[in-house]
Amino acid sequence: MGSEQPDRRAFLKKGAALAGGLTLGAAEPAILKTSASGQAVEPQSQEAQSQEFHDYSDPEFVAYGQRSPYVNSVRQAVNGRPSPDEFGLVFHIGTPLQDQMGAITPSALHYFGTTRGSIVPHIDPAEHRLMIHGMVDRELIFTMDELKRFPSVTRLHFIECAGNRSSSRHRTIIESHGMTSCAEWTGVLLSTLLEEAGVQDGGDWIIAEGIEEVKGTSSLPTAKAMEDIIVAYAMNGEPLRPQQGFPLRIVVPGFEGILSVKWLRRIKVVDQFYMTYNDYGHLRQDPADAALSYRIGPKSVITSPSGGQQLPGSGFYEVRGLAWSGSGAVSRVEVSTDGGDSWFDADLRGTPQRMAHTAFSFNWTWDGSETVLLSRTIDEIGQIQPTREEVAEYWGRPGVRGQDNSIQPWRIESDGSVHNGIA
Ligand SMILES: Nc1nc2c(c(=O)[nH]1)N[C@H]1C(S)=C(S)[C@@H](COP(=O)(O)O)O[C@H]1N2
Ligand SMILES: [Mo]
């Protein structure tokens, strides 16, 4: 190792010089000095700054990688109120979207949504079973190993809580949009398992059940199950995280997050929609239009600059954001840097995937005067992300009922501070 050290030192010095060069005129280092809540991030201790190498004696160093102590982006409890049960825990924990680069949310930063507070069942995968029963020719019970023997798929999909909404009270993007994340999910298509079981005539709905005391249970149309629901055991290249449903969950692409049942233990094929705990207040009972109310509308948000950040001064900025739709792939994203008077196409990163976050960017030179930044998504079936006014008109009253996929305004003041632009 001794012979390696001089090389590494030389490299680190070069790296430092490069980073120093980039800070001139670039917005990012200054922006990153504030956390999502707008509070200054604690400066590194002298000791941490002088340490050039990590502690090689720590077995974790070899066993599992950790992020740099200088990287301190964290999730945050959103949605305020605790669960109304004996646990009294937080409902949802939001992703720090303001720091995200690209479409994939790191697993450790994936938002965490629960229906009754942040309890996480401890499940031994060797003991775990998935049962498929009800209106099927063959009732089946699978072990995790058996599930992994089926042909699998790996797909990028976002999950978004239907409660993800913006209001004038929200100061940061974690509060307004943090209840959506995007991961690469691996698992068996539910259609594969249902074909194995043989769905009987009239088995038009399924009920998916999770393992915890208050069951995370959802009704879903069998047609959606046959289309693209994944029974997932892995995310971002490794087993699911416990908070994301270890060892097994469904991912229901494009539908409200509450339907992506975690800690999955049972799927029952049934003849009709059943009102479950999860479904209450979320779905319409009329099967003819119920499925429509499941889908997340075309949506986007500028992640940087966003509320609580601070621009160091006028000049060049790369405006960055995420766009998605519950009805397919994003086909276009438009950005306005003048409060909506003019709109320009943003650059999309990579090939947009269906029901997945797509990263976008837009080159912008800020003249230093107060302005409002906006973005809007147009999806593959031609849907356009609405303004807040359009959404309010739809609901026939101010504010947003139901899902909120409205355009998020970020107001830049002449001092460079960035604020929620909702009046
Ligand atoms: N079993 C079970 N599944 C569940 C929940 C739950 O509490 N229990 N919460 C739901 C809600 S409200 C959301 S928004 C998504 C969040 O998924 P995530 O925590 O992986 O982001 O999971 C859904 N699936
Ligand atoms: Mo949720």
What structural keywords apply?
423 residues; alpha+beta; Sulfite Oxidase, Chain A, domain 2; Immunoglobulin-like; 17% helix; binds molybdenum atom
Low-pLDDT stretches: 1-40
What would the average pLDDT be, to the nearest integer?
85
Per DSSP, what share of the residues sits in E-state strands of 2 or more residues? 25-35%
Q: Summarize the amount of helix as a percent range.
A: 10-25%
Question: What's the arrangement of strands in the largest beta sheet?
Answer: 5-4-13-8-9
Bound molecules: ligand MTE, molybdenum atom
The best one-word shape is globular
Distance, first to last CA: 59 Å
Description:
- Among the domains are: 129-284, Sulfite Oxidase, Chain A, domain 2 (Alpha-Beta Complex), CATH 3.90.420.10; 299-420, Immunoglobulin-like.
- The strands form five sheets. The protein has a five-stranded mixed sheet with strand order 5-4-13-8-9.
- A hairpin with a 7-residue loop joins strand 1 and strand 2.
- The protein has helices spanning 4-23, 28-31, 46-50, 59-63, 144-148, 173-177, 190-197, 222-227, 287-290, 388-395; strands at residues 76-82, 90-94, 112-113, 129-134, 140-143, 153-160, 180-189, 205-210, 217-221, 230-235, 238-239, 249-251, 264-270, 299-304, 315-324, 330-336, 344-345, 347-348, 358-366, 371-379, 410-412, 418-420.
- It is of the alpha+beta class.
- Bound molecules: ligand MTE and molybdenum atom (MO).
- The ligand Nc1nc2c(c(=O)[nH]1)N[C@H]1C(S)=C(S)[C@@H](COP(=O)(O)O)O[C@H]1N2 is lined by residues 110-115, 159, 161, 181, 210, 212, 216, 243-244, 257-258, 260-263.
